[in-house]
Design goal:
The protein folds into 2 domains: 5-87, Helix Hairpins; 88-120. It is built from 6 helices and no strands. The protein has helices spanning 5-19, 31-52, 54-59, 61-84, 89-103, 108-117.
Length: 120
């Protein structure tokens, strides 16, 4: 299975509809909380990497399932953030493609040196 951003948004909206009486409203003022919760989930994924290691994520089905679940939580909060700021699937997709195209021709080493090393 391979879901699209629009599918993820629809799923999160369905979940929110089910719990809207007790969950944060679908409005921009709540978006920052979802970014913070997303970062908490990133931290949980990092903890698995640190405590279990790369090999366990690749070879141990239980560890891998835990890691993938945490990464799913990251995507869910990411999607919730987009929804609260009214970002359409087409909008984020276009920005992603544009950024990818830019990144394909970037000189990361040179940019890093200009940003950090030349200022020192």
């Amino acid at each position: 299975m391979d879901i699209k951003i629009s599918d993820m948004m629809k799923m999160q909206t369905e979940l929110w509809e089910l719990h809207k009486d007790s969950w944060s409203p679908m409005e921009p003022g709540c978006g920052r909380n979802f970014i913070l919760w997303m970062m908490e989930e990133v931290g949980e994924a990092i903890a698995i990497i640190k405590k279990k290691g790369d090999a366990a994520i690749m070879d141990d089905p239980s560890v891998r399932a835990s890691f993938v679940e945490e990464m799913s939580d990251v995507l869910m909060y990411y999607t919730d953030t987009l929804l609260r700021y009214g970002v359409a699937p087409e909008e984020i997709s276009a920005a992603y493609v544009k950024k990818h195209e830019r990144n394909m021709f970037r000189d990361y080493g040179s940019e890093y040196r200009k940003k950090y090393e030349e200022k020192a």
